[in-house]
Structure prediction request, 251 residues.
Amino acid sequence: MNLKPWKHVFEKPTFGCFVTFPSPGLSEFTACLGFDFTLIDNEHTSISNGTLEDMVRASQCVDTPCVVRVRRNNYDNIQTALDTGANGVQVPMVNSVEEAIQAVQFANFPPVGQRGVAHASRSARFGTRTISKPEYLERANECKFLGIHIETLEAVACLDEMLEVDGIDMYFVGPSDLSGSMGYPPGHPEVWKKTEECIRKIRAAGKIAGTVTTDIESTREAISWGATYIITAINGYLVSAVGEYLAGVKE
Prediction:
């Protein structure tokens, strides 16, 4: 559950992996591969709330922290993800200072934010006597991890102002959506250049910079710019390995 501080791990490059299928078993399998944390993708998948909680639990049962990328920057999605006991949330399509502040409000209990107070969820250890309600509320605010996406030209334009918003731990530069916003196909050099500019700016402000990479070369490049929250996905590696195997055996 999310009651132990762990944000300090991002002082150095830290590697997470998307889990893109609604499967607790796959979540546990991914956690067992050796990643520092898992990132459950609830933005582009059909994961139900019950399955989401089981996926978070499956990752944590092998001592691997779990972050949930929620569907949208709204109360319901952020509240649900944190109530599962996830170690944090990653919020897509945050395009203004107002939306950044909104994400902070939804992710924190009063008096810091507007998160609904409950003491019977998994995140609160189901209301058992192992932790009091006041202690839970304080520790939940302190220990949860909040990241927001910078993935449109609109967000890039106001990045300086968003970096001044209190309560955001990580700024995630999403090159795929950024490429669409810039009018380029994925992987275009101009998109990667803009990604570098954003990562360097985030690090210069003393914040955690994150992005997604697909191979060793792009990972090393992102790290050289200052990114310490590195996400990849096993899907591409599986497709490549299976394709190579099938090509070899069907010759």
User: Anything to note?
Assistant: The first helix runs from residue 24 to 32.
